[in-house]
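Researcher: Sequence recovery benchmark, item below. Answer with residues only.
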């Protein structure tokens, strides 16, 4: 007889298990710290939004909206979607709560899962995690673009990631882009039949996206298409020059990427991406750009905006691949108690140690010493602390260092000092 079948996670969606989850927590904590010292504050957003929000902002013709959204009709017949990205939600919230009345720039960050029904592969998931930052307000000064990119560079440094490239482009604005698009369409008329099926479709629906094609055979033809940077209006040209100067003054190197258009319709002027050689095909760690006018498209006041989203899954994968950061949360004390009479004392000793921040495991049932020590070893405990009738009588604990098996008899303050010394050594080793 076979038992009931098991239920597995759906394709493209995964569990993040310990000990990897500790690296995720470490990374999110670093990102929050960096964002907060740059004066960004967290906005917590819904995961479900009206489908219309994404159709109107990301663009109904984009792959994200036309092919990849998880959309369903709610019981009240409204169409809702799992968010494929969060900039649109930030702008919706900005309008909904009148954040344009806040003094100065509105600088917000978010952190959480996004959903896109893409073909799953390494580095590409259907539920993935982004941390993103947005600067909204009345200014479009290039310093905003550069400072926001600077914070990403600081985060890369904190993660000890040294091999990455910043790609920079401007995709113009409603003043200069139409002339470029007309020129691009014209060029595509002759070239499109020799491009891949997706490009042939995009040549009519969304010609800018042709530039984003990754099909190897298409590359020489696409490289020869007109470049948007040759069509920028005076305002866009000056803005791009400004961003380049602002990056240079911050000591941030970049490479021009005239084909960098990104998969969302709302960008104007600056677009950028940070890639790494460690990820294979899915090599983008983060990307973003400027989206002046998006708030107006969503019925809000005239607003300028700049932002980015970074892929947490990918940062984690690069840190693992390069071994740049090693986080191993240790079980510091496995507390072996012997004899029912020792249990209450063990409970309170554990409570005092935990209050001081030490990680302590107390087995719920009494165990034979040999079994307890074997379990402590398999759980990678630093110390096994033994508390039985002898220890209760002497007022000293038997402390066994699991790494080398050495055993000492220590008072509680001596045990705490030993644990603190271990912590110290640990923090020096955490980030290698
Ligand atoms: P985008 O919103 O497409 O600009 O994506 C910003 C960043 O999110 C990318 O640079 C990736 O690091 C990450 N990302 C986007 N899509 C996925 C995905 N399907 N799986 C994992 N990470 C992703």
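Model:
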């Amino acid at each position: 007889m076979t038992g009931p079948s098991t239920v597995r996670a759906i394709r493209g969606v995964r569990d993040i298990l310990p000990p990897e989850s500790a690296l995720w927590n470490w990374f999110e904590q670093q990102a929050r710290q960096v964002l907060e010292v740059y004066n960004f504050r967290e906005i917590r957003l819904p995961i479900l939004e009206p489908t219309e929000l994404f159709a109107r902002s990301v663009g109904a013709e984009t792959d994200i909206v036309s092919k990849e959204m998880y959309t369903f009709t709610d019981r009240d017949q409204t169409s809702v979607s799992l968010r494929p990205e969060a900039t649109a939600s930030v702008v919706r919230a900005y309008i909904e709560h009148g954040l344009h009345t806040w003094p100065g720039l509105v600088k917000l960050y978010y952190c959480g899962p996004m959903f896109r029904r893409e073909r799953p592969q390494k580095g590409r998931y259907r539920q993935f995690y982004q941390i993103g930052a947005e600067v909204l307000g009345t200014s479009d000064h290039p310093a905003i673009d550069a400072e926001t990119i600077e914070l990403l560079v600081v985060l890369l440094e904190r993660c000890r990631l040294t091999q990455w490239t910043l790609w920079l482009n401007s995709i113009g604005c409603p003043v200069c882009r139409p002339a470029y698009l007309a020129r691009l369409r014209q060029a595509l008329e002759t070239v499109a039949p020799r491009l891949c099926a997706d490009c042939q479709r995009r040549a009519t629906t969304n010609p800018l996206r042709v530039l984003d094609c990754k099909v190897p055979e298409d590359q020489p033809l696409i490289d020869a298409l007109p470049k948007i940077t040759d069509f920028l209006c005076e305002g866009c040209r000056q803005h791009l020059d400004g961003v380049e100067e602002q990056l240079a003054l911050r000591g941030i190197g970049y490479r021009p990427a005239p084909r960098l258009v990104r998969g969302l319709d709302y960008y104007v002027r600056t677009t950028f991406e940070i890639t790494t050689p460690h990820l294979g095909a899915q090599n983008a760690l983060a990307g973003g750009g400027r989206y002046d006018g998006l708030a107006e498209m969503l019925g809000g006041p005239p607003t300028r905006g700049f932002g980015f989203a970074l892929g947490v899954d990918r940062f984690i994968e690069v840190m693992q691949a390069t071994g740049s950061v090693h986080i191993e949360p240790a079980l510091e004390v496995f507390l072996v108690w012997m004899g029912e009479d020792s249990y209450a004392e063990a409970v309170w000793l554990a409570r005092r140690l935990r209050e001081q921040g030490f990680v302590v495991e107390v087995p719920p049932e009494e165990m034979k010493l040999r079994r307890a020590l074997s379990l402590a070893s398999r759980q990678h405990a630093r110390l096994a602390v033994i508390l039985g009738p002898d220890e209760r009588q002497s007022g000293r604990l038997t402390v066994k260092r699991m790494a080398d098996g050495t055993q000492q008899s220590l008072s509680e303050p001596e045990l705490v000092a030993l644990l603190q010394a271990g912590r110290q050594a640990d923090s020096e080793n955490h980030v290698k």
